[in-house]
Amino acid sequence: MITLGIEGTAHTxxxxxxxxxxxxxxxxxxxxxxxxxxxxxxxxxxxxxxxVAETIQKAVSDAxxxxxxxxxxxxxxxxxxxxxxxxxxxxxxxLSVKLSIPIVGVNHCVAxxxxxxxxxxxNDPVLLYASGGNTQIIAFANGKYRIFGETLDIGxxxxxxKLGRELGIGYYAGPAIEKLAREGDKLLDLPYSVKGMDMAxxxxxxxxxxxxxxxxxxxDIAHSVQETCFAMLAEVTERAMAHIGKDEVLMGGGVAQxxxxxxxxxxxxxxxxxKMFAPQPRLCIDNGAMIAWLGHVMYDSGIRMSMDDTKxxxxxRTDEVDVTWR
Length: 326
Ligand code: FE2
Known about the structure:
Layout: E1 3-7, E2 12-18, E3 24-31, H1 41-63, E4 72-78, H2 82-99, E5 103-107, H3 108-120, E6 126-130, E7 135-141, E8 144-150, H4 156-167, H5 174-182, E9 194-195, E10 198-199, H6 202-213, H7 218-244, E11 248-252, H8 259-271, E12 275-277, H9 281-284, H10 288-300
Parallel strand pairs: 1-4, 4-5, 6-11, 11-12
Antiparallel strand pairs: 1-2, 2-3, 6-7, 7-8, 9-10
Bound molecules: fe (ii) ion.
The site of fe (ii) ion has 6 residues, from helix 3.
């Protein structure tokens, strides 16, 4: 069945179309970039609302199909920013009614796992999900995807963005920080904030800003921030793998594109006889194809939703999803 998926949890409006074998027929990704300052949910939602109709048309045309070929519409029900989620949900409901096709609302974090499972060849991984809004270590155990560790304050990507703004290197600063870090060689002292299986990132940002005020090179600060934060992620991911006995680790989210993070996770995995998997970049970041695919998987397993079930849920937890398809 051909499924159209609408992603709209935060900065990205994504429309993806998949078939029943997880072939991605199209995957249009449009990221909102604030003209200045940080991401404002209402402004991001206005951006999504302005372009959602034309983006759906583009995805349909890229896929080489027509609207009547679509058998199911899926959308990101949560977690995320309320105004953005409502744009995605409203567009999905409109398509469902107009085309008389079923609708399924999906959990964004679980979508990252399932697109990885379907496209990388991994089977039962621990997902290291590192993005702007989310930082979680997720794995399937006892009938649900469970969160084994997560940030206690902000997502790691959000921290990179805030740090980028403080240091004057722009917003969506992850790639700029990665580039600077390659030129850094001094490991500066930053708080290593692992608390049990959880992590905290905002104190690291405050400490990094104060290092900058003391005159340290941006390159050394970027290097030290990456080394510290990625070591924290690797430690928690490794402990989750050891605790539940999994030998696969899957990367997901925008920060999972960072090559230094991938190298650290890959060598951690190799040291314990495990394997790292990473979806191709456009399926790793927020995108509509992963929403379409999870919608298909859920529908295929018998899940049906009425319009009443399509209310968005900003705090939709990964472990609230009944995983009926595994
Ligand atoms: Fe995401």
